[in-house]
Amino acid sequence: MKIGILALQGAVREHRILLHRLGVETVDVLNPEDLKGIDGLILPGGESTAVGKLMVRYGLLEPIAEAGRRGMPVFGTCTGLILLSKHINGSEQYRLGLMDTQVERNAFGRQPASFEADMPIPVLGDTPFHTVFIRAPYIEKAGEGVRPLLVHEGRILLAEQGRFLAAAFHPELTDDTRLHDRFLRKVAG
């Protein structure tokens, strides 16, 4: 199995480390050619407007969207959640639009309002997951076929739709591989 990591900005190294711990080969995706031969793609955190513009500049936006429409599994964390969504409140920024979700960017406030918390995610077992929120978004509305996996104070913070998985937080900044493992099971099909 080979997983691509969009390597334009963000926690690329941290995702790579977790995937390597799980015995998975990774490829940094910097141009459309890097998409060839990968079985799934991770969209790491970063700054969503900048990443969207860089995806357009490097010719990646439409090839990634097309690969997702054809069934390639995609896991988005923080910025990746925003890029996966069809609708972004108050923004027309570039996005992939693969998940039937409407998101609110920077929903918990600016950088100083970032926080960490242990939260229960039943699909991952009984042990709470340590979540790291940095200028995090959340899913305000989920369309038909979107399954919320973590809801906190009425905000959807983790969801899946078919082969897509989106987290408002940064699982790659922890030692917990359970979410990456869930994504790899989607890839394995």
Characterize the structure shown:
The protein is an alpha/beta fold and 189 residues long. 24% of the residues lie in helices and 32% in strands. The strands form 3 sheets. Strands 2-1-3-4-12-11-10 form a 7-stranded mixed beta sheet. The chain has a 3-stranded mixed beta sheet with strand order 5-6-9. A two-stranded antiparallel ribbon has the order 7-8. Strand 10 and strand 11 form a beta hairpin. The longest helix has 11 residues. The radius of gyration is 15 Å and the shape is globular. The chain starts with a strand and ends with a helix.
- The ordered string of helix (H) and strand (E) elements is EHEEHHEHEEEEEEEEH
Please state the oligomeric state of the protein chains shown.
single chain
Q: Mean of residue pLDDT?
A: 93
Number of helices: 5
Beta strand count: 12
The largest sheet has its strands arranged as: 2-1-3-4-12-11-10
What are the segments in which pLDDT stays under 50 over at least 5 consecutive residues? none
Termini separation comes to 12 Å
Note the beta-strand portion: 25-35%
Residues in helix, %: 10-25%
Largest sheet features: 7 strands, mixed
Round the Cα radius of gyration to an integer and report it: 15 Å
Secondary-structure content class: alpha/beta
Estimate the global geometry from the Cα principal axes.
globular
